[in-house]
Amino acid sequence: MILVTGATGRLGKPTVALLTDSGHEVRSLSRRPGPGVVVADLSTGTGLADALAGVSAVVHLASGANAHDSQQTRQLLRAIAAHPVDHLIFMSIVGVDEHALAFYRDKHLSEQLIAASGIPYTILRATQFHSFIARLFVAQRRLPVTVVPSFSIQPVSIEEVAERLVELVDAGPSQRVRDFAGPEQLSFRELANEWNVAHSLRRRVWSLPLPGAAGRSFSRGVHLASLPGDAHVTFAEYARTHAESAMR
């Protein structure tokens, strides 16, 4: 039995589907009830003991837009100490050990906690998802211009990340594995232009520097992986698929 945290999220859904299609028995963990979901709270640990009963591996995908993910990781590790598993797979982000962004630093702390726990583990770092980039553009759809940060990024397909996670489940504990990244590094301006072309939009793109230590980290490119990345789907392909879906 494989327990997937964050199972109802953007990465969790395709990961659960692929694990199930591959013949694995999967238990989905979420704070909210739903079909095929076991309810537990990673922030407090409530329900984790029941969620881990009979589980041999955990795919830890739960994450949020804050700098407190390590608190949830601590709760999960405490629960696993009482209900041992054979393999813990953790989803992380490229560059967390060098980046000044608080969310990245906290993600790196989770990595360190897992590595020091004594639990057999695998850590996969990936670059930013296509859908993360798309949300920036969708949020500005009613503005006369698109405003983007002035650094480059290496977006990756969520579905391909899910495929890699399934491979790692089958491979067994591998500790820190090779970073998983998109096939190209493009500036946000280039990505915005590709998005506009795919959606038949004619609008100007303004790029602005991101201030502070986090902006300097992005400018240095610590969030980028080496080229070529292992993924294949480009952002232009994703944007075309998104535009086609919006027209249906």
UniProtKB/TrEMBL annotation:
SUPFAM superfamilies: NAD(P)-binding Rossmann-fold domains (SSF51735). Residues 6-131 form the NAD(P)-binding domain. Pfam families: NAD_binding_10. This is NAD(P)H-binding protein. The lineage of its organism: Bacteria, Bacillati, Actinomycetota, Actinomycetes, Micrococcales.
